[in-house]
Structure formats: structure tokens, C-alpha cells
Amino acid sequence: MFYYIFNWLDSLDIPGAGVFQYISFRAAFSAITSLVIMLLFGKRFIRFIQRKQIGETVRQLGLEGQNEKAGTPTMGGLLILSAIIIPTLLFAQLDNIYVLIMLGTTVWLGFVGFVDDYIKVFKKDKRGLPGKFKVFGQVSLGIVVGLLVMFHPDIAPHSTQTTIPFIKGHELDYANIIRWMGDWAENWVWLLYVIIVIFVITAVSNAANLTDGIDGLATGIASVNGGALAILAWLSGNVIMSNYLNIMYLPNIGELTVFIAAFVGATMGFLWFNTHPAEIFMGDTGSLAIGGIIAVFALLIRKELLLPVLCGIYLVEDLSVIIQTASCKIYRRRHHLPMSQPVPIEHRAFLMTPLHHHYQKKGIKEQKITQRFIIVAILLAIVSIVTIKMR
User: Fold this and answer.
1) Which of 57, 84, 151, 369 has the most beta carbons within 10 angstroms of its beta carbon?
2) 3-state class of 172 per DSSP?
3) Would the pLDDT of 260 be above 80?
4) Residue 185 — pLDDT band, cuts 50, 70, 90?
């Protein structure tokens, strides 16, 4: 909104109004506004949630300090999403298709997570929204995003190319995967791309959800990832810098820096209240949306192949669950045990999953786990940015 107001003021030769033309200026104010919203309204939101008795129901997992978390206000994701959307509406170009896609992603996955939290909190059903409906929400978003990237007239280039980390002057064209189909490849490559988009969104969104298990972990990592994505988006949308660094130039993509700056401000602001001992939890309203935002953002700036590095924490958290599940199934089959029977701890791949619970079981304080995971996330973010020169 301010972008258009100050454009009009600039046309009247009002001194200083032209500063809103600069993405860096608007991104900075977007981050500040988001952070201020969180700090000003965080306590009020927590008190409101407490009055409504919207508290976390804690599953008994035998973890230290777990019982103290019972009754902690939840659904803080509503505050995070508000702190992302409001600054974006104020400072971004709202006719930019990339910004509109990110706003739609935020609202849609936030809604899916909200329904899950609503069922858990108000319907007192610990299972929440059935997994198939969560997957439907993620898949439907993937279909929409994939089709928009492939066919919307304001998105250029209309290609299935993406950046390969560490390789200079080379982009992967997904069409090469089905080149064996001959003439059919050109006609059906859009379908392959949509499938890839669905996979990326579902994987990252669920991984972020798994990571949200101890105080400050999910928000701390998300803010680090968001900062790295902001740099990559700005470089990809700047014709001079993209040419200098020999990376794919994407017209109008730089406007996403304003959105992701609000994302960083919101997650950092939430961390103010979510550090141990947490005053509020984000719930699935926040965690599903955070993962989806990171996934869609990376897809739009054509850096999705960088996600295994940038989101390395999400990856190992996800893999730990997969490995644990697979190893337990194999053990039960070997010993002819029913699937309902627990596998002895000494025969499990991990003491407990996701991975952060494994370290809790080993007696490491959750504050230390969070801090160490965030340090690793920072290192991975630095490596991800450095890849644009290590090519």
C-alpha cells in the first residue's frame, strides 16, 4: 500500500518519496514492522489465549520438563502469520505475482494448520486433523503453485530450469529427465514439474512440523533460513549481481525480499516469547505454514535443489523419523512381533524421534539442543550462500 502512495507522492515531486522505489529500503521496514508487531502484541495475544484457556495438551513421552509445558498457550502461529501478512501488504508491490503466491501460501497452509489446532484444542481430539487432509492441503497448494509457475504470463522465464549448487554455468532442466519420451517430453514436462513442486512443498512443510518439538527450535531455524533466502532472492532479482555471479536472473523476483524480510522479523519476534521456557507455542498453524513458505519461496527463486543444504536440520529430523520407523518394522518382521508391540530401546536406531528428542533422551538440556541446532543451521545457511561463488 505504501509503495503506491509514495509513488503518487513522488509523481508530485515530494522530496524523499522516491525512496520507496528501493527494495532494500522497503524490505528493511518490512522486517522492522513485523518485529514491532510481534513485540507489541505478543504479550497481549498470550494473555488473550490464556483467558480463553487455549493451552497445549502434552503427550506423555517421558522427557524432562515435559509436564511443565502442559497448559502453555498455543496457536501462536496466528500471530506469526499476521506479522508476515501485514508488513507485506504495507510495503510490497501487491500486483507482483510472486508476492501474491507467497501470500496465498501463507494463508492456505496457515488455515490447514489452524483447523488441526482447532480440533486438538477445542474438540479435545489429540489426533487433530487427519493426515490425509493435511496432505490434501499441501498437494493442492503444490498443484496451484506448479501451474502458476509454468503458465502465468507474469512469470518469466517459462521454463523448468533450476539452479544446481556448486556447478558453474549449469542449470538443471527437468525436461531432460523425460527426454527419452521424445516429442512427448515438451508436452508433459509441466506435469513432471508440478509433481516435483508437490514433493518439495509436502516434504519441507512436514519436516518443519516435525522440528517444532522443543522451545525455540522451529522459529530459530526458520529465521536463519529466511535470512539466507532473502539474500538469494535479492541477488536473483538484480540483473547486475546475477550476471556478475553467473546465476539465473529472474525479473521481478527481487520483490520477494520484502515478503521474506517480514517472515524473518515475525519468526525472530516470536522467538522472543518462544525461547525456553516458552510462553507460547506456534502450533501447526505456524509450523505447517513456515515449512510451506520456505519451500514455495525456494521454488520461486529456482533454488529448490539447495534446500537439502539450507534446510539440513529439517532433512535430518525427517530422515530420523523415516529411519526409526523402517528399523522398527524390520525388527518386528524378523522376530515375528505384532506391529502394536514396542521395539526395545536397544534395538532402535534412535532413542526417540524426531532427532531432537533423541538428544533429550540422552540427557542433554533442550536449551543446549536448540542452540546447537541453530548454530548448525547458521553454518548451513552460510554454505548455501557461498555456493553461488563455489561454482
Assistant:
1) 84
2) strand
3) yes
4) low
Question: From the CB of residue 152, how many other CB atoms can be counted at a distance below 10 Å?
Answer: 14
Type of residue found at 176: N
pLDDT in the model for residue 65: 60
Asked if residue 380 lies in contact with residue 313, where contact means CB atoms within 8 angstroms, the answer is yes
Q: Is the C-alpha dihedral spanning 309, 312, 318, 321 positive or negative? A: positive
For residue 342, say if its preceding peptide bond is cis, omega within 30 degrees of 0: no
Question: Is residue 51 one of the residues assigned to a domain?
Answer: yes
Cell of 224: 536463519
pTM over 0.70: yes
Torsion sign, CA atoms 252, 255, 259, 264 = positive
pLDDT > 90: percent of the chain: 55
66 — pLDDT class (breaks 50, 70, 90): low
Query: In the prediction, which pLDDT does 168 show?
Result: 65
The closest alpha carbon to 224, from 373, 106, 33, belongs to 373
Residue 339 lies in a domain: no
pLDDT score at 83: 96
| Residue 353: closest CA among 331, 323, 333 | 323
Expressed as residue numbers, the domain containing 44 is 22-57+74-314
Task: Using alpha carbons, select from 55, 68, 63 the residue that is nearest to residue 117.
Answer: 55
Report which of 96, 49, 52, 99 is spatially closest to residue 76, judged by C-alpha positions: 49
Element (H, E) at 132: helix 131-151
Residue 166, pLDDT > 80, answer no
Q: Which residue, among 63, 138, 78, 147, has the nearest Cα to 108 in the 3D structure?
A: 138
Mean pLDDT in residue range 115-138: 88
Q: Is residue 242 part of a domain?
A: yes
Backbone angles phi, psi at 365, to 5 degrees: -65, 145
Question: Quick one: cell of 144?
Answer: 496451484
Does some domain include residue 133? yes
Number of Cα atoms under 13 Å in the Cβ half of residue 76: 32
Could you tell me which of 27, 31, 8, 368 has the C-alpha nearest to residue 214? 368
Residue 246 corresponds to which amino acid? N
DSSP three-state, residue 32: helix
